[in-house]
């Protein structure tokens, strides 16, 4: 896009005219129908995330797009990364600059995205790798219609969950679900569960930096213009067994941070909670329940819809790109052709570390841990089967 100009401003510099234009852009493009693109999410996240700003793109004197982002040294990322499950330029259909154009116009040393919505290459080619997110789309018969169809097509799975529900109730007491919860103490309980999970699995603790937990707490206080965040909880008797933190806007309900008591995994309390949350939220008019990236086994039984987003790292031309390709070659030699897959794993780890940690020392420590994990993975024998 020739003649593209950009102004980088603080969120507080945007006036009601800009926010009205932002909302009009969202209304014009169904691809942006997610709580993460709403002005309210940007307004809250920009107060919490260090070095936050909005790039305002214009062409021919007319505003054509907004890109909320954060800086970490010379790198740029979508605002609230690594917790932002969808990101891109807020614009009308066909008017958004591509990811490559955004990186060039902003002058970023690198721009790392994990779930980009919209064009990536400036000339129409795709950058990075496609990733799928999965959803439950309710039809005219609502939750009951969805459950009836799923139980028919995925009978073994859902009958098993019905048995798990009866078993947990028999063992621990009557089950009850509450949604719309905004108690900070409950959120702290959930964050504690997630931090224990990250420690067990060797993943970077995204809550250790502090500002990410502050963001979840701040979003809990928002409830305006149809946008908000809340939790749902599942109790068995007097025992809290699972919590799930979600964002919601319009008819979209985005499951964000689930957690459950590990000792009760056999009863699938997290899955039972998601089902009951959908049932209760559907009564309030929610119709799309977004489960984020595919991967966890239960999602294939739940979800009847999907979206494709792009994961990509755009580097300023020069040494960085050359080093990246050389690293892939070395990993391929060491890892039996697994360089590209290992690079994707390392890139995701590094994206989370760089986004969370705001000091060079903390980023260095996180990078060392990620490198160790990648090296261990590279040394493992491949278990991939070779087609006959």
UniProtKB/TrEMBL annotation:
<dbReference type="InterPro" id="IPR038740">
    <property type="entry name" value="BioF2-like_GNAT_dom"/>
</dbReference>
<protein>
    <submittedName>
        <fullName>CelD/BcsL family acetyltransferase involved in cellulose biosynthesis</fullName>
    </submittedName>
</protein>
<feature type="domain" description="BioF2-like acetyltransferase">
    <location>
        <begin position="156"/>
        <end position="300"/>
    </location>
</feature>
<dbReference type="Pfam" id="PF13480">
    <property type="entry name" value="Acetyltransf_6"/>
</dbReference>
<keyword id="KW-0808">Transferase</keyword>
<dbReference type="InterPro" id="IPR016181">
    <property type="entry name" value="Acyl_CoA_acyltransferase"/>
</dbReference>
<dbReference type="GO" id="GO:0016740">
    <property type="term" value="F:transferase activity"/>
</dbReference>
